[in-house]
Write a structure and sequence with these properties.
By secondary structure, the chain is an alpha+beta fold. It contains five helices and eight strands. It is elongated and about 50 Å long.
């Protein structure tokens, strides 16, 4: 079931990327690709993951950052890759440990505590000329009705998005949004 969920989120994200890139494809010349070429490419993007209170593993978020979470949850973001040779997007490298992330944050009436972990990905995924920043681990005190996007905006100052897709967090990456790239050799199994 977990493999199915991961594959489903990959399909949803790739579909969204293809839709958002349709205006570019209309201006490009049609190029025939082979199955081998397709397997050697994929998409580099921000993946969104969640962990309910008490969970010790990340679950890919199937609907994007529009879902409510409970007090004690952890939200995860990872700059990741998926494609033919690497079908599963990588979850954040740190486990969703609410107790360590939110240890100094007291509960408050009408609010919920949510841990946030942002993984800027491996150097192999970095766009040319960019270096992944250090991970961010923080606890936010959000309104009881807050959804993932609200929680992310409390955790970082800069979020770049396009057509509902998160393109950049804290200025990374600088100038792209869900681009197709060759599969990095370091990610091939």
């Amino acid at each position: 079931m977990k493999k199915f969920k991961t594959l489903s989120i990959t399909v949803i994200i790739i579909s969204a990327l293809l839709t958002s890139c349709s205006s570019q494809s209309q201006t490009d010349t049609a190029v025939e690709t082979t199955t081998t070429d397709s397997a050697d490419k994929g998409y580099r993007y921000w993946g969104y993951f969640q962990a309910a209170p008490g969970d010790t593993q990340w679950t890919p978020a199937m609907t994007g950052p529009s879902v409510k979470m409970e007090d004690g949850a952890v939200e995860g973001w990872a700059f990741t890759f998926s494609g033919g040779a690497v079908p599963d997007a990588s979850a954040p490298t740190s486990k969703p440990d609410f107790d360590s992330i939110c240890s100094g944050t007291d509960s408050s009436s009408g609010k919920k505590r949510v841990g946030v972990f942002i993984d800027f990905g491996p150097s192999a995924l970095a766009p040319d000329g960019e270096t992944p920043p250090n991970p961010i681990s923080t606890c936010v005190l959000a309104d009881e009705k807050a959804v993932g996007a609200d929680v992310l905006s409390l955790a970082v100052k800069e979020i770049k998005s396009d057509k509902g897709m998160v393109c950049g967090i804290s200025g990374y990456p600088k100038n792209e949004c869900g681009v197709e790239i060759p599969t990095p050799a370091q990610l091939k199994k």
